[in-house]
Amino acid sequence: MGRLRGRAAALAAAALLCLSLTACGETKMTVFDATAYVKGVLDETYKGTWNNAFLDLVELTDGEAQDAYEASLEQEYRRFAYQFDLDESALTEETRQAVLDLLAEVCAKAQYSVQEAVPLDDTRYAVEVSVRPLDLFLQVREDSLADYQEAFARKYADTDLDALPQDEQEQFRTDYENDWAMGIVSLCRDTLGLLNQLDVVPILVLVAPDDDGLYSMGDNDFSNLSALILPY
Predict the structure, then answer these.
(1) Where in the sequence is the signal peptide annotated (predicted)?
(2) Residue 30: burial class (beta carbons within 10 Å; 0-12, 13-18, 19+)
(3) How far does Cα 4 stand from its chain's mean position?
(4) Are the C-beta atoms of 156 and 177 separated by less than 8 Å?
């Protein structure tokens, strides 16, 4: 069967959130490998779960799989921060952890099913994933974000930042950014109980080798899956 290579380097580089798979000797990758690979990567990324069969397939230890899950949460954290205008440089560790805890809870609710891979030729496999998108962040944007923005602006409307001493300006900026971020977390938590799964959407991903024989989902395929599973 195929052999998977750890993804730490890809994550450090930036976008690729999946593992790469390398053919072992004369043995070709199988339909089972391709299917288990896609399902395993999604489970690890969103659920933080994996079984021994997946660890054997990707040649990871339990600790390395945990590290990969935490790295995936970090990627989602950066996506969340960008979408909701969080200033990461000003956030305290407490605020940052509150965001990560929220995202872990939301991601664990991800809904998808992976169909059996279909060989396209001797080396490439198409895998259909049926996704039921989560509408949490769409609900927050649609129902409560504008009111929150207005209330937040009123809260700080009377503050003259230029009138404050330099050290107080820095503290104000920290307090301001963390207040904003924790408010966004609260909006999301208030909406969590109203979370809906939208209509099922099928999406095809390709598992194929590169010039070095490394199999993976392309980063575009994974980005498309991520945007579909948890849209903003």
Answers:
(1) 1-25
(2) middle
(3) 20
(4) no
Distance of alpha carbon 224 from alpha carbon 205, whole angstroms: 9
Q: What is the pLDDT of residues 180-190, one digit of tens each?
A: 999 999 999 99
Surface-to-core class of residue 207, CB atoms within 10 Å of its CB (0-12 exposed, 13-18 middle, 19+ buried): buried
Q: Name the residue range of residue 109's domain.
A: 2-229
- Is the separation of the CB atoms in 59 and 5 below 8 Å? yes
CA dist., res. 34 & res. 91, Å (int): 40
| Contacts made by residues 72-80, CB under 8 angstroms, sequence distance 24+ | 72/11, 72/17, 72/44, 72/45, 72/46, 73/100, 73/103, 73/104, 73/107, 74/100, 75/11, 75/17, 76/103, 76/107, 76/230, 77/103, 79/226, 79/232, 80/137, 80/232
Tokens of 136: 């949490």
| Domain tally, the chain | 1
Residue 103 to residues 5, 39, 97, 106, 222, Cα–Cα distance (Å)? 26, 20, 10, 5, 18
Measured in degrees and rounded to the nearest 5, phi and psi for residue 49 equal -125, 155
Please compute the mean of the pLDDT values over residues 22-28 and round it to a whole number.
44
